[in-house]
Specification:
The structure is a homodimer. By secondary structure, chain A is mainly α. In chain A, 81% of the residues lie in helices and 3% in strands. Chain A has 20 helices and four strands. In chain A, strand 1 and strand 2 form a beta hairpin. In chain A, helix 10 packs across helix 13 and helix 16 packs across helix 20.
Chain lengths: 700, 700
């Protein structure tokens, strides 16, 4: 097959994803949006979400333009780079931003229509909620593939050597990371500031429950689900998706210097570079096909429907990738690359690396489920420890979080060794691509959760009949499990992506070993391993401060708006949305600077030390992220366990009991861990690796 | 000077330490032990402590003999090792065990005599408490130096090459680590099981306060202070002390192959090997001299007295070490060693490395104080967050713990680079020796804390006049600060010692680089970095289970012993001591096996992977230990801040307020973190490094 033909086919799959997403979005918009009250509530949420995006994007435009200008100036005179890196950067930021905008807009339409559909049955409700998630998922992969492949076509047309093409394309990844930083860290701060603020305001100014329409922070809280869990997760996976592809392209380019490979290759030596793009493109088609299988009948199990779609897609992808890889790559070749040395590669070996990625992603997700889902031993253990008070609940949750790092670390360790065994460093990078190839449907399942959650909230606020709430609760309960799996998957993919980018950085910076026996490198590892702690502390502190602002604003409204407490006057929801928005953007500056400046400073001191830093931040960040995410998830479900009546030694503990109060403390502690600081670490890992990759030509 | 002369002088300093410790112990025993009630309470504590030691040592003897047999068999046929390694091992275990026995016996005599002395004044009370600590400190350094130097003399007399002498001596360090594992991990579990058990039992069976003599767990709680904070800390520092010396000896032996060094050296090439022993010996003398300056007048500040002794000793040691190093080492030599390559060393450079160790240890201690002492911004912040409940208190404390890793990581990173800059890997190892050279007085100041704490408890239980309690409180408050500094110091020294042992392992195993770009090594780093999480989770779970046993036993006694609740019958304290003891020993088996088996298994799979594992466990363990220790310390003092009346925005929060209740939750959560799982990580780091060093000849 011709290289140029396949290059042009890839963006077509991206376009297809966007077109299909568009038709689903149109279909959602055509669904009934329910009663006037439902529409008003949904309208407030949608407006709040748009207000956040508008303000976020206003700051982002300035940030992106400044960084673009810096990139252009720094790279203009570099022989192996170009000012065009700023174009890649802006394109990456635009694509990620656009995906977030589309996803969130559709999610805030799908929520109320899910509620309305739940009035007729479970099947229609699942269909609407999942379609909403699918629009997000397909927008992410569609824009990712489209943007990347078009830039690749554009730069390949210039008279550049291949290293230069790749250096300049890496800017796309940096653009995606910048948006991810804002969306995931800022969004995480937003959602928890609103959540904790609404919750505590209810406690401080008594008699106002969290979901009560009189609570001015309640809309901000609902907006937060969309901002954090839809847009934030989307930007996170967009970054992983794009980063894993670029990392693999960089490593695949090393084979251009391997005569044996080039001689055999059907694409003139480019097949290893093109493979991640092709796998991503095929993954899009598989995701669309998989989505057709997500169907449930009344009384059926939505979890099963989602599993069939998700795991079916992964399995199908594994089979297809075998034929793709066998068709594209030479059956066997020996190459000598700087980092791996002389190694004999096989197409089958590359296939196994892809399978390892797919399997590792799934396994990490399942382990996450084991540690955080209701009715598991760890979660029931926390529920039991709630009986003796909040202190024992907290200790038990911390313990579960710590334990839960064990198996994922082993899976990653085995995955790294395995992927490398089959296909060297290229294997590690392509494993990440494999893991992320079905991101389209994966993210659909993820984003389905917060949409169902919102749908339930709207049903409650609009006082719909109990069977509606029962149906949305059923969807939501499944959403909690998929969210846990999705979080594990996001961390695992961030780790593999960061490792792929790490290898790409070493290649581009001309580093051929990172010897921790050297003191500077060991110091780099130590500093890198410390960053996740300080970054997490910053994110958690930000939530605390922003929640404080929110509580004050709620107090002001109760004092100044007459009739609010009596329910005769409307709360100024917009002010609360605005406070959360401003706080989120203000508070993410410090951690953002930390993530960007530290690798730049260390890199210019000593590029090898930066290599150590990358190793340290990746390893420490993955573990600390798993610890935080799983402790938080387990606390959440321990609370839910007690709310569903928890019986131990003959005694039953229910909502309102002392055990429940203790479990609520754990849940509140876990909230910022699992929704703000934990997920932010995914971004930290990748952002630092991308920054390193982008400055690699400058410090080489 | 003759090598053999100086070799014989070193054990003399060890003997001197023991003789002086003996005279201080005699002096303490001669002091008045107070009223009959005081003596009875103290007698119960002393008996409990002895009961713990007896049972612990009974298990230990079996463990030590089995490991000794394994070591003897595995090493008997190794040409560069010998069955005598089991003799080193047993000697190390014996010395550490004996130091713990002496320290704890004297501490349980000093506590009640401190109380009695406090009836006459602050000065006499400080004198008794500090003398008690000094006996512990001098026993540790005395037995460490004596044991090591005698083995060195013994093995040097055999017809062995030097690498073999060092390999066989390394068993001493493993013996010390084994005891440290039992004393620190087991002791940590003991102390918190008793503490949490006594506390919760009081809550569950109402009307029995924690310190009430009717609470059967109260003596176990007081025993715990001695078991955990005196014997545990002593064994921890004994391990660091011995490990740092042996690590430096290994690295110093590399100069025996440097002709330029040997030609110039006054000790025939052995000066770099002897230096750590000599510095340790001189440090003993400095510690004894420093102890003379710890004096306080009535109304004076005990903190100042301790600081003069401690920092004065460190400063004096720095000055002395300049002259010692200049006298012992050649002024300048160039050597080529496997790990460092060709490097020009100077005596002055080695001196600066020692200074870096002394300064880094002090700085990490001071940073710890900043994050955990009362009236600091972080601790007041936690106190403020307690007003909105226990959830915000916990979040704030976790945040402080995370932040507090930042500066210590930078100090260690700079210290590593600096020490290496001045004297290569030898510099890093000798920096650890520098840091630990004044362990004698450092540990005296540390152990003074729990003695004062016990003294206060006895004053309370014996219902002495309030001015006595005021004096012991003043001593205890200072003890909290010194404990925080001591904890930071213990972690920092564990890190440097582990790095020194790590370098020694690489030398002995014939590894000349640990390249994290290699997948097996990266996997090793990942697994290593995960171990502290799982190890901590095990330790925390152990505390929970053991505390549960304790609560049940307290309940049984209240049910079955007639008149206990009324105060007419005596509680069966021994049963509670026994439960805590058995639980501690049972629960430390799993984490102990983890720490020993993982490095052995990984090492036999791939020695380079073990190198990666060591790097991972050291870096991750240090950070996780700092996080846990400082979060715990900060929660503790946030509670104390509120107990001393905390005023915010005009409102005052005191003991018994809701803010105080929230702060108590934080303190309870922090207890196992700062006293069990956190300090256990010090042992994990060093133990894994020592195990690696001991198996190095087998996997080389």
């Amino acid at each position: 097959m011709d290289a140029s033909l396949i290059t042009y086919l890839v963006p077509v799959t991206g376009l297809l994803a966007l077109i299909y997403a568009f038709t689903r979005a149109q279909w959602i918009a055509r669904q009934d949006a329910g009663t006037e009250l439902m529409q008003e509530i949904a309208g407030n949420i949608a407006r709040g979400a748009r207000a956040f995006l508008r303000r976020e994007y206003r700051v982002l435009i300035v940030f992106v333009l400044v960084v673009a200008a810096l990139l252009a100036v720094a790279n203009a005179t570099q022989p192996d780079s170009s000012w065009l890196i700023s174009v890649s950067f802006i394109t990456g930021a635009l694509c990620s931003g656009l995906a977030g905008f589309i996803g969130m807009t559709v999610a805030t339409k799908a929520n109320v229509r899910t509620t309305q559909a739940a009035r007729t049955g479970l099947g229609p409700a699942l269909n609407v909620a999942f379609s909403g998630g699918l629009v997000m998922g397909l927008s992410v992969v569609g824009l990712g593939v489209l943007g990347l492949s078009l830039l690749f076509i554009l730069y390949s047309g210039l008279d550049w050597d291949f290293a230069r093409v790749i250096n300049v394309i890496a800017g796309f990844s940096l653009g995606a990371s910048s948006i991810a930083l804002f969306a995931r860290v800022g969004g995480g701060i937003y959602t928890k500031a609103a959540d904790v603020g609404a919750d505590l305001a209810g406690k401080v100014y008594e008699g106002i429950p969290e979901d009560d329409p009189r609570n001015p922070a309640t809309i901000a809280d609902n907006v937060g689900d969309n901002v954090g869990d839809v847009a934030g997760m989307g930007a996170d996976l967009f970054e992983s998706y794009v980063g894993s592809i670029i990392g693999t392209m960089v490593l695949g380019a090393a084979f251009l210097d391997a005569p044996e490979f080039v001689a055999q290759d059907a694409f003139g030596g480019l097949s290893a570079v093109l493979l991640p793009l092709v796998l991503a493109g095929v993954g899009i088609l598989v995701s669309i096909v998989g989505s057709f299988f997500v169907r449930v009948r009344e009384g059926g199990n939505p979890q099963k429907a989602l599993n069939i779609g998700e795991f079916g897609a992964a399995g199908f992808m594994a089979v297809l990738s075998y034929f793709i890889i066998r068709a594209m790559l030479p059956a066997e070749w020996t190459a000598t690359t700087p980092l791996v040395g002389t190694f004999t590669y096989t197409a089958t070996g590359v296939f196994w690396a892809v399978v390892i990625g797919l399997v590792a992603g799934t396994l990490i997700g399942l382990v996450t489920e084991f540690y955080t889902a209701t009715d598991t031993r760890p979660v029931n253990g926390i529920a039991r420890q709630s009986i003796t008070g909040s202190a024992t609940n907290i200790i038990a949750g911390l313990g579960v979080g710590m334990y839960s790092t064990g198996i994922p670390a082993l899976i990653l360790a085995i995955g790294i060794i395995g992927a490398h065994h089959f296909a060297g460093l290229y294997g590690i990078a392509i494993a990440a691509v494999g893991m992320l190839s079905v991101t389209g449907i994966q993210l659909a399942v993820d984003a389905y959760g917060p949409i169902s959650d919102n749908a339930g909230g709207i049903a409650e606020m609009a006082e719909l009949p109990p069977e509606v709430r029962q149906r949305t609760d059923k969807l939501d309960a499944v959403g909690n499990t998929t969210a846990a799996i999705g979080k594990g998957f996001a961390i695992g993919s961030a780790a593999l992506t960061a490792l792929g980018l790490f290898a790409a950085f070493m290649t581009q910076a001309g580093i051929d070993s990172i010897d921790v026996a050297q003191p500077r490198i060991l110091a780099g590892v130590l500093i890198g391993a410390m960053l996740p702690y300080v970054f997490s502390a910053m994110a958690m502190g930000a939530v605390g401060r922003a929640a404080g602002d929110m509580i004050k604003e709620v107090g002001r409204q109760f004092r100044e708006i007459k009739g609010l407490r009596e329910g005769t006057a409307r709360a100024e929801y917009e002010r609360c949305v605005d406070i959360s928005t401003r706080a989120a953007i203000r508070e993410m500056i410090a951690p953002g600077l930390l993530a960007v400046l530290v690798p730049v400073i260390v890199g210019f001191i000593d590029k090898n030390m930066l290599g150590g830093l990358l190793a340290g931040v990746t390893v420490s960040g993955v573990l600390f992220a798993i610890f935080q995410a799983n402790a938080g998830g387990a606390w959440d479900n321990a609370k839910k366990t007690i709310e569903a009546d928890f019986t131990v030694d003959g005694a039953t503990y229910s909502k309102g009991s002392d055990a429940h109060k203790a479990a609520v403390v754990g849940d509140t502690v876990g909230d910022p861990l699992k929704d703000t600081s934990g997920p932010s670490l995914n971004i930290l890992l990748k952002l630092i690796a991308v920054v390193a990759l982008v400055i690699a030509p400058l410090i080489a």
